[in-house]
Amino acid sequence: MGVARAKTQARRPVPRFVISVDIKVLKLLFREGVEVPGVQLWMKGQGKTMDNDTLTITDNRTKQTYTIPIYRGTVHATDLRQIKTDPGDFGLMTYDPAFMNTASCHSAITYLDGDKGILRYRGYPIEQLAEKCTFLEVAYLLLNGELPTAHQLELWSGEVMSHTMTHENVKKFMDGFHHDAHPMGVLISTVAALSTFYPDARNVTDADCRRRQVVRLIGKMPTLAAYAYRHRLGMPYVYPDPELSYTKNYMNMLWKRTEPKYAANPVLSHALEVLFILHADHEQNCSTSAMRAVGSSHADPFVTTAAAIAALSGPLHGGANEEVLRMLDEIGSKDHISEFIKHVKSGERKLMGFGHRVYKNYDPRARIVKQVAEEVFEVTGRNPKIDIALDLERIALSDEYFIKRRLYPNVDFYSGIIYQAMGFTPDQFTVLFGIPRTVGWLAQWQEMMQDPDTKIARPRQVYVGEEARDFVPITLRDRELASA
Ligand code: CMC
Which of 350, 368, 397 to mutate to test ligand 1, by most ligand atoms within 8 A of the CB atom? Predict the structure, then answer.
């Protein structure tokens, strides 16, 4: 495809307010030389032999040699299937249970260099976006591939905020949860339940329909999260206020009491914007992979997002921010850090908020979160846990165990300390991760739905069970067991 298209036609721009395009339309647009932001780069990269590199493999079982193409530093796993011991052989597979060395997709959304500690959304360094953008501006960037103009941002913000309201019945089933239900369980269930309110969402191959659900989900996420929060406290729900910014509206729904107009502290709402930007996407992590895997079956985006939230809730992923706070509580004071580190090094405990599959250098998000913490403490007063955390980091980073394994603080190490200072309880922390990550999940879902390589996710396995054997009637099984 790439070779035929390479005839240098002048590319005509289309309006930048495009969020999703059906794959058939996309292919047509590409053939016609029309630019679709964010997708074009990837379409140009189609075709396995683009860089003419190859890999030659000799199978020592058969002494046969094979040459397979290398494309952007990867070989296609299916190219290995031709490597067989005999014609009846299934062919060679790769074994990679945790995707340690397997690219599962092409993506033009987020770039991450774990060795250098680099994170970029659509090419823009995370540090610049966190400093200069609002969360909805970054959401637009992730979804569309380009930063919005002032007019586009105004339209986009208005559109998202007009979708913040939920059906009244949502409040009813929210009421059905036990008073101390974990907010992540509530969020998973209520996001999945939205699927029943929007049956049109099943039409996932329709680009306009997909876009409608994207806006609905981004708009409603803070409302569901705030309802879950207030349900836990036994407080009446506060309706969204579309006149406010995304984060100020969320704060209003969380913390408004009897005052006629709740005024969010601008430093705290800015801190929340920055934290939301930092959490908006992180390429093919566990929850995003869940989003893509579930979405690949053409399940609707509400239940698909619920699956991604479920993946996020685990303590090795987004749930780590809650665990960090519990760990700091348990350590209690700086005097107990050395003892705790001993338990970590002996393998009894994990240092939560440390380590990352990809970052083997400082997580750039953790660096920004540390700065934000200081700004927040100016308003809220210092959370004493920060001093334990800073000492813990200092001691860990000078210890051979952590140095050898290249374990650094990740985004979750400091975020909970800020959230707690702002008034959130630890069980809310992962919800605060899930709200902004919804944008990343949806951007990745959109990209997947437009990718001609997408097929239902269905890994292979290496079967290690019994060979074929004959059924044993129940009356004879005792005898079989006795003779075993
Ligand atoms: N504390 C102590 N030892 C650790 C830690 C930790 N937090 N993380 C990794 N190790 C050790 C691990 O025991 C192993 O040691 P050895 O080689 O002796 O067996 C080595 O470091 C490599 O670790 P791994 O488990 O193979 O690494 P992984 O890439 O499979 O896991 C991780 C990555 C994030 C799940 C892991 O580092 C971890 O469990 N960290 C704590 C939980 C956490 O903070 N998660 C948030 C991740 S960032 C935000 C997000 O994306 O959700």
Answer: 350
